[in-house]
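debug: dumping io for the single-chain case to check the tokenizer round-trip. Nothing else runs in this session.
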Amino acid sequence: MSILGTRTDRITSAVLDARAGLAGVAEAQPGFLSQSDRERLLVELVALEAQVTELRMRTMAASADVASAHGARDVAGWVALQTGTEPVRLRSELKVAASIDRAWPRVAAAMARGALSLEQARVITQGLDALPARIDADARTRAEVHLVGLGTGEMDEVPEGGFGPRHLRLLADRILYVVAPEVAEAEDAKRLAALDAAARAKTSLKMRPHGDTPGLTRITALVPDPIAARLATYLDAYTSPRRHSLHEEAGNPDTERLPQHRARGLAFCALLEHLDPTKLPAHGGDATTVIVNIDHDQLTKDLGAAGLLDPLQDGEQRISAAQARRLACTAKILPVVLGGKSEVLDLGRAQRLFSPAQRKALQLRDKCCRAEGCTIPARWCEAHHLDPWSQGGKTDLKDGVLLCSFHHHLAHDPAYEVTRLPSGDHRYHRRT
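debug: decoded output
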């Protein structure tokens, strides 16, 4: 018997007919349509996209055997390989498809008729999946019906076309107050506490020099939403149209033309430069300090360059003399001026502990732990007397060296012998 007329064949035929129909208008120019026709066309295209996406998601959810047959990690990876598309996007769709297939048929039905977009469906299913386990099936159904109605606009007092993803996310977060108000407050408190803990567990900040553009560093951060909102509030204070300094610094005094991402980037720089160093915690035996190494003549002229001790690369990065002077005005900067007036660094036997000024000088000189092969940054190291202070050693630079905590303990461990190499590094041997 022919398979024509089966459900599978009807699905494929519908897709082929749709493709053929669109191919037939490939040369037609929408610009010749009337405004009302173009308005309708745009709305219908969004609905068609939702229908196509739903069918693709539904098919992927039922096609684990396809991935298995071809040795692919999942069906999304196989589709991406066959079509030259992005697997990340398809896997994101597959995740929504699995949620819908498992429990939310009304979301699927709304997408299938073009009334819900993928973004709306994702927000709705995330809210529904987050419902606590003790919520019964009837309340879950009412929650799904309510959120779908908010998304499609098929409820009273809902904007035509429904709420977009941003508003739907807020409404989905509060759905318990609609379907189970008696437990909503307690469950909401537990959910928010869990979200806060999860956000803090994933909080990270990475800094990496931008390889394609010397002089720039890329900062990538994941922070809890309240912290992000707080940072945005601070940055917006700097990017207010009434403030012109950021725009002028960018070489663009026209406040209306500076993109927000650039304005916020400059505001972030200004925010850091205006932090009060006296309020920052101490580390490495000293308050947080930026160390700049510059020749005295270069400091007083507009020529030359300075060396900024870089904690990201455990070395020096080159900056302009102009930048060094500006830093000295806006942050807690220690200018290590070669040939100019400086702090007294050699204190002899006057005190046992190395002074903050000496620690800065050691940091500038050693860059990292001086144990052979150790790369622990200088800012995490401890100052060590080469000749023990208790045995008459002096608290002078020439008698001091930076060692990480591990190697500092070895230096005082009688089970180890320490050899100073010509380079100034320390080599450790267990005594026999």
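debug: round-trip ok. Residues 1-5, 244-256, 284-288, 328-350 have pLDDT under 50 and may be disordered.
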